[in-house]
Amino acid sequence: MSEKDKEIQEENNNVNIDVENVDAANEEGATTEQENVELTAEEQLQKELDEANGKIASLEDKYLRQVAEFDNYRKRTIKEKAELIKNGGERAIESILPVLDDFERALNNMAKDENAAEILTGIELIYNKFVGILKQNGLQKIETAGAEFNTDFHEAIALIPTPDESLKGKVLDCVQAGYTLNDKVIRHAKVAVGE
Fold first, then answer.
1. CATH of 90-194, one of 2.30.22.10, 2.60.120.10, 2.40.10.120, 1.10.1740.10
2. Residue 184 in contact with residue 152, Cβ under 8 Å?
């Protein structure tokens, strides 16, 4: 066979395959049309109703999820705003803490000097008023005397060996006072702990 004959033979084979594919597609289309014809008008309406009900259920579920998500968002933002209002003065109070420390050191030094009794009384009044205002704004001093060491409130800067077993793991000395603002630690107490 010549090359031309081979090409003609291949073309005929391709045409036969295409005709077979068209026939198969026509048969499938005829089957689909028969199925549609076989459905009665009532069945067709029922099918459409079921599809519509499924779509309604899906949309209702999406709607309920969106409402719940928005409600959670609203509650979260209200809580965040309340937290900001409650602890809004944290930076201001943190900047005042060194002044409070200086007041305490001055009071301790003046208590040792007998000539400064009147000055000591005046400074104590100012100190007490200052502490009272800070307490009204939610500031509390972290108590350390004899307390168990707790990393949530204390920062250990020294370990001191103790002969008494009952003092192990307890705060022996406070180097710098710690404070909480509305139950949130804003400065850990720097302490020496028994070892």
1. 2.30.22.10
2. no
